[in-house]
Every structure is written in structure tokens, then in C-alpha cells.
Specification:
Layout (H helix, E strand, L loop, with lengths): L2 E3 L6 E3 L1 E4 L4 E2 L7 E2 L1 H13 L4 E3 L8 H10 L7 E6 L14 H15 L4 E6 L8 H13 L3 E7 L3 H14 L4 E7 L11 H8 L2 E5 L33 H18 L3 H10 L4 E7 L3 H8 L8 H10 L8 H6 L3 H7 L1
Parallel strand pairs: 3-6, 3-12, 6-7, 7-8, 8-9, 9-10, 10-11, 11-12
Antiparallel strand pairs: 1-2, 4-5
Length: about 350
């Protein structure tokens, strides 16, 4: 296993993290489908491979994921970093959702109980909340840290402008500062490269990646004819928008590189991400031991410069304004003099 500091903090996490979203049962059978026995095997395998970073959320299978993960880590809790998330609806009442002080306090307490621990290493706000003042959310997170219930804080699925505003407020007021942002990033989804990654690098915020295989699409197990296979996640949980036909063209290159190395498409897709500057850790989830074992091998795969260039050029995102204007107006003499 390889390790990295999470952002500008002293928290050291494995470059591959274990995502426990599949643990439990519920209304998304294509996602929530791992029982206690299989989950134990997966967690044991992750620990044996050197993974020390485990991710879950209160919204996964109505809290079952947290309960199962906490029980399975058991006596090894002090050896690992547990990240969980709050902000999604946790009950029928209006106040049981969002990033208000009331809900975040209640959600954090409920997560602590389900995880069977007295502190959360990394507490992540799972989404934005336009109905709650940003300062209220940030002060509540700071108070959770000051109370000792949370060690570090992060955000997930926030736009760059909002995350940047939040970090500025946190620094000005001496509040606990975000050390990580958990964002979607993959070969077929490179939107974070526009603004979020540059912001994170500048602010010292570490990027942790969810769905690095685009919901399983980049695992290579899908074809044009089996996208709706009831046993596959995409049949019931296809939330990531991208042109599937273009995606299959990308996969052609991925398979070609995989064949050259004698590895799988998933390993190539993960290795590409792991090589990207600013990526602290990549979450890998699994419902089968074979999936986890395959994903773990990506840590040792080194793609050549030519292979990286091919994948970069094949999936290059379309320039957006004002990015393209700023790039086109770079001073040629400065570039020549300063590199």
C-alpha cells in the first residue's frame, strides 16, 4: 500500500480507501447488497492489504453501512481512519435533513452511536444546502471538533466557489478548516479539473475520489448489450451523466493498455487516477471479494508516459470560459522565461 497526507493536515491515509456503501440492504438492491459475513471478509482483506482509510455515510442503507463497518472494525478502530458523512434526509420531519446546526448535531450523534465509537476521524458534509446560511454550517462543524466528537472535517459535492468561500471564513474566524473534499473524478468525468482541483491545490485541501470507475462502467464488465443487466449497479443506480457511446470508445483504449500490461480495465482506470497530482486517496467499493482483490492491484500498476498521454488526450474535457480565455492569453515571453 502507498500512503499520503490528507490535504495540509497530519492525517496519513492509504492511497486506496475502502468505501462501505455496498454494506446492508435497502431500496437500492443493485447497490446495497453485502451482508455481514461477506462484509467481514472484505474489511479483513482491506486491512490485510494495508488500507487504513474507511468511508461510509449515514445515508447508506439507512445507517446499516455505519453499523456494520463499526462492528467489523471492532478492536482495530484505533488503527484506522473512519470517514462518515451527514446532510441527507434522516427522517420524515423537515428538520431531519440539510446542513443546519440542529441536523448536523443530531446526525453526528447518530453516526457515533451506529459506528460504536466516541469520535469520528473525518466528518464530511455530504452535499450543499441552499436553505442554511454557510456560517451556521461551518460554526456547527467547528463546535463538533471543539467538543472532541470529530477530529477533522471535509466537504463533498461542493462547487469550488462555495468551498473557497468556506475555507476563507474558517480561516478568518479561527474555526476548524476543511482538510478534504470528496468528489467524483474518473476517466469519463474530469469536471473537477476545471476549478475544484486548482482550488484544492492552492488551499491545501486533499482530494478523495468517489466512484473512480464511474459506477462500475470503467471496470470493463459492461458492453453495449448488458448495460441494463439486473446484476449490475448501472441497472438501478445510473446517476453519473456521460455519453455512454463515447465511454465505450474510451474503454477501447483502456482495454488496449490493460492487455499490454496483463491487467484489467479497472486497474488501468484506477492507476490513471492515482497518478494525478492532488489526489490524496481513491475510494474503492466492492460487493465481491474478486472485485476488491482486483482493485487493490492498481496500487502497483505504473502506466507509461505514453499511456498516460493517450488517456489524457482521449478524455480531455472541453475547455470552459473563462479557462480557455485565460490560457490563450498567457504571455509568451513570460512563459519562455519562467517555463
Amino acid at each position: 500500500m502507498k500512503y499520503a497526507r490528507l490535504g495540509n493536515s497530519g492525517l496519513i491515509v492509504s492511497k486506496l480507501a475502502f468505501g462501505a456503501m455496498t454494506f446492508g440492504t435497502g431500496n437500492l438492491p443493485s447497490v446495497y447488497k453485502v451482508g455481514q459475513s461477506a462484509a467481514r471478509q472484505l474489511v479483513d482483506e482491506a486491512l490485510a492489504a494495508g488500507i487504513n482509510f474507511f468511508d461510509t455515510a449515514d445515508g447508506y442503507a439507512d445507517g446499516q453501512s455505519e453499523e456494520m463497518l463499526g462492528q467489523l472494525l471492532g478492536s482495530r478502530r484505533q488503527e484506522v481512519v473512519i470517514a462518515t458523512k451527514g446532510g441527507f434526509r434522516a427522517g420524515p420531519a423537515l428538520v431531519q435533513s440539510g446542513l443546519s446546526r440542529k441536523h448536523l448535531f443530531a446526525a453526528a450523534e447518530a453516526s457515533l452511536k451506529r459506528l460504536g465509537t466516541d469520535y469520528i476521524d473525518l466528518y464530511i458534509v455530504h452535499k450543499t444546502d441552499p436553505f442554511t446560511p454557510l456560517e451556521e454550517t461551518l460554526e456547527a462543524l467547528n463546535d463538533l471538533v471543539r467538543q472532541g466528537k470529530v477530529r477533522y472535517i471535509g466537504f463533498s459535492n461542493w462547487p469550488a466557489w462555495l468551498a473557497a468561500k468556506a475555507v476563507q471564513i474558517q480561516r478568518e474566524r479561527g474555526w476548524a478548516t476543511f482538510i478534504s473534499g470528496q468528489m467524483y473524478y474518473s476517466l469519463v468525468g474530469r469536471d473537477v479539473e476545471y476549478d475544484i482541483l486548482p482550488f484544492m491545490k492552492d488551499a491545501g485541501v486533499g482530494l478523495t475520489v468517489w466512484s473512480p470507475l464511474a459506477g462500475g462502467f470503467l471496470s470493463g464488465k459492461y458492453s453495449r448489450s448488458n448495460l441494463q443487466d439486473p446484476d449490475g449497479r448501472l441497472s438501478g443506480f445510473d446517476i453519473i451523466p456521460f455519453d455512454k457511446e463515447w465511454g465505450f470508445a474510451v474503454l477501447d483504449h483502456v482495454h488496449s493498455i490493460a492487455d499490454a500490461h496483463g491487467v484489467t480495465a479497472a486497474q488501468v482506470s484506477l492507476a490513471w487516477l492515482l497518478s494525478k497530482a492532488g489526489v490524496s486517496s481513491v475510494l474503492v467499493g466492492a460487493s465481491k471479494m474478486s472485485q476488491l482483490e482486483d482493485n487493490l492491484k492498481a496500487i502497483d500498476l505504473e502506466l507509461t508516459a505514453e499511456e498516460m498521454l493517450l488517456l489524457d488526450q482521449t478524455t480531455q474535457p472541453r475547455p470552459l470560459y473563462p479557462n480557455w480565455f485565460a490560457d490563450s492569453m498567457l504571455d509568451a515571453e513570460h512563459m519562455k522565461a519562467l517555463g
